[in-house]
Model the fold of this input.
Amino acid sequence: MTLQLKAIAKDYTVRGTTTRALDGIDLEIALGDFVCVVGASGSGKSTLLSLIAGLTPPSEGMITLDGDAVTGPGPDRGLVFQHGALYPWRSVERNVAFGLELLSLDKEERARRVDWYLEETGLAGLRKSLPKQLSGGQKQRVAIARALACEPEVLLLDEPFGALDVQTKEDMQVLIRQVWTDTGTTVLMVTHDVEEAVFLGRRVVVLASDPGRVAADITVELPGERDLSVKRTPEFLALRASIEDLVREQHRGHVGLS
Done:
């Protein structure tokens, strides 16, 4: 599986004025990769994810998955937003099962997948609960389990932990890293948090602003196991600082031209 973006541009027209949000994006993501995209405001991070999800078409260029053009949403791409957008009248297990009800699966396979992903995300004991009974972190676990239950080729994450407190956020980072290891699902994640990107990603793509374009594509190489203690190592701190500096430079360059 390869996700490819070739010469992608995206324009928006509001009240007769056209603005280019993305320009000349070339990106290739291979099977099993974990890529995090960071950038300052105006760099088009969420727009990029929306294009890959098929929610909106590019103005120029082409996006392909396994060689097939992306022309709209599909079960080969799962999407999780900052706020999980759960169905409040459905229990945890029925939220997770929602996407499966749209696929040609028998009842036994649907039940197997729901059980497995509830267990994988630590939700087995909450399967009968309603969203209003859950914490913020638990809701995001449900949203992730729901997206993964359809077993997409690519999991798209749009700042999924941005609204969580620091402790819950780190718990979720450990969870998504473990889920990625266990499932082998390709992950593309947008985040404004450089520390999070360095901890989670095998690559960090930095977008420049106005219009959004790739400023750097950095391979993350860290010593030892990728647990929370790695955040205190000199290698991690140095890489985080260099990427933060790059993001700031891109933002300053944009502001300086304004």
